[in-house]
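Readers outside the structure-tokenisation community will struggle with the description of the input data as it stands. Showing the layout once, in full, would remove most of the difficulty. For illustration, here is how one protein appears when written out as sequence plus structure tokens:
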Amino acid sequence: MWPILFRIGDFEVGTFGLMVAIGFFAGYATAVSRAIRAGYPEEKISNMLILCLVMGVLGAKVLHVIVYFNESTLSELVFSRRGLVFYGGLIGGVLTGWWIVWRNGWNPAEVADLLAPSVALGEFFGRIGCLLNGCCFGKICSNPLGIRFPRIEYKGELIGSDPFYHQLVHGLIPLDAAQSLPVYPTQAFSSLAALATFLFLVYVLFPRRSFKGQVALTYLILYSVCRFLIEVFRDDPRGSWFPGLSTSQGISVGVLIAAIGMWIYLKRQDHAARKDGAPQAQP
């Protein structure tokens, strides 16, 4: 891991923030490119994406505060630079985008199809940031997949890494240990799943989509399923809604049900339009 890119005095530039920024710009560039090719005005799409980013970050921070409210002070939760929850960002960004699409009179399903793959691409880079930062870590792993995270000290004070500190607090490693026990690389699992989703949506599904909204709904289905499964291997504190389920697993179930329901609705709409002879939009 490599959490701090460089320091100037007490000011730190972290690799997590850098990778999130790279993810945004990669997602922004690919989304704008696809939208322009589909005939949407560049300026309006660009403004929408920037506003979605701002509200997405705000949503990610709000959900982080809600999930960890009983584990830290409010000021620490609000002003922590790495305290973000992806589902909060997704919800904040989607609601903001939906409002802007409605105001412009665009087709929300078509716009969602254009933008969804870029969300997956952005997550690919963001989860690399998680790996470099040491957050979102996995449970102890006894097979070759396991990776170790180091003990980190700054000015003589133990500050991490997160997996090391978590295992130390729970008595799993001695106080003088140099690194953590091997853990599942859940950050890498999430990153690779996001990259595979992006490639599938852009190069396989989008050219063959049968109705508007199919690409976006496929993203939501794939993400919710992958997130639910990866959560099984995570060990970082992240709240819970029901016994045995993390907060993100609970949200994943809701997202999956909603996406399947919307899939059925849009598919029926498309079928009815075809029966009426209405022209069908091409990818």
